[in-house]
Design brief:
six-stranded mixed β-sheet, four-stranded parallel β-sheet, Rossmann fold, Hypothetical Protein Tm841, Chain: A,domain 3, alpha/beta, 281 residues, DegV family protein
Length: 281
């Protein structure tokens, strides 16, 4: 059987513990400040990024290709010949294309690229499921054959506390942001089947925003068993409150509280609460 590795980029927001648990390799996105750039999660933590947001809003860029190339060399030396690379949506980042070009430096290895068509923890869910399948003895081909089904059953929603950071990142028009701020609209965003971010809905005020995320999760649970990852970005109380509300629900197979990472938090800003959902019915 081929010895294959599952790789994802740090937009996946998985912790090092989860990466290790599912035997996943991570390629870090670069978080760029005026004076220095950092490797996401390796050289800068969520806590540090959020603490510095009031001073400077950094930008993000493609993974450090030198780091990625060295990591592939390491895996090759360990006997890996085949690689499944699960990336942030190609509609939102050039990561997939950059890594595809990098793979051409290794003509003796076999790479398969899987576009998650999403970002953040939903991308991480897909990667974890791939890791689980590999650990259970599934072949390279079997994992690839099942990934599309996993993607179709994975959902993500995040409620923004402010539109400021999307505006600074050029993700929405300034007029839209200004009007939204004036009437205190809180957008809940998701990604569509084409891998593009869209506004799932808008609600007025923080309480309604929290209630809507809860309602969305419960609507999935009403249909059957799910695994739920509650997400927060510098909003521990909100994330904890949502986690406590959901705890003990009979249709939840897995429930955990996770933190939005630096490369995502740069664009969503602080005070966000959301979820990743894997339908398992």
């Amino acid at each position: 059987m081929k010895k294959f590795a599952v790789i994802t980029d740090s937009c996946c927001d998985l912790t090092f513990a989860s990466l290790q648990q599912y035997d996943l390799t991570m390629f870090p996105i670069r978080v760029i400040y005026k004076e220095k750039e950092y490797l996401d999660k390796i050289e800068i933590s969520s806590e540090e990024m959020y603490s510095r947001l009031h001073e400077e809003v950094p930008t993000t860029s493609l993974p450090d290709l030198h780091y990625c190339e060295n990591k592939v060399h390491e895996l090759k030396e360990q006997g890996y010949t085949d690689f499944i690379i699960i990336t942030v949506s190609s509609q939102l980042s050039g990561t997939l294309n950059a890594l595809r070009i990098l793979s051409e430096h290794f003509p003796d290895l076999n790479f398969h690229f899987f576009d998650s068509l999403t970002l953040g923890y939903p991308q991480g869910v897909i990667a974890m499921e791939a890791g689980k399948m590999a650990q259970s003895g599934a072949s390279f081909e079997e994992v690839l054959a099942r990934l599309e089904d996993v993607r179709k059953r994975t959902y993500g929603y995040i409620a923004l506390d402010t539109l400021e950071y999307l505006k600074k990142g050029g993700r929405i028009g300034k007029v839209t942001a200004t009007v939204g701020e004036l009437i205190k609209l809180k957008p809940i965003i998701s990604s569509n089947d084409d891998g593009v971010l869209y506004t799932y809905c808008k609600v007025r005020g923080k309480k309604q925003s929290f209630a809507k995320v809860k309602e969305i999760i419960l609507s999935h649970l009403d249909k059957g068993k799910c695994s739920i990852w509650v997400l927060h970005g510098d909003a521990l109380q909100g994330g904890t409150d949502l986690y406590e509300i959901l705890k003990g629900h009979p249709n939840i197979n897995h429930l955990s509280l996770e933190v939005v990472g630096p490369s995502m938090g740069v664009h969503t800003g602080p005070g966000v609460v959301g979820c990743a959902i894997l339908e398992e019915f």
